[in-house]
Amino acid sequence: MDIQALADRQAISDLIYAYCRSVDRLDVPLGHSIWHEDGQADYGPEVYQGDGRGVIDHICAQHRHTLHHSHQVSNILIELDGDRAGSEAYVTATLRMMRGEKLLQMSVWSRYIDSWSRRDGRWGLDNRLAIRDFDEVREVTEMDRHEMGARDSSDPSYAVLGARR
Q: Which intervals hold domain SnoaL-like (predicted)?
């Protein structure tokens, strides 16, 4: 594998990770930045189908109704073909919310099947198919209250990563 291929794989991986950061920090501009302007997202008819940047708006709006949320990505596979690429990434999303007096935790295990292209020297997402493999909602008991993190740019990570990372 040559240096350019390694750099391309890293650039695409970084965008996949940036997506998770954007929805966890409710950072809409960061989320928009991973998509090409004409990108399309299909999270299924029950969640969202439409333009890629719109899915960021939708997810961040939905997450504002929760107490906490965390997304992790693993098992990223990337196939390069010049200025085009395909990837699969496994995603776990965990969200907490109150329903009446009950603290609920929703966990979703999914895969992102993505098509990418490099345009004007920048990799961006052309199409995402989100496949939900399984999910659950259950009542939970907190061990402690955790107050250090924030779901916006006041989160301590922005001080060390910069405004748009």
A: 4-126
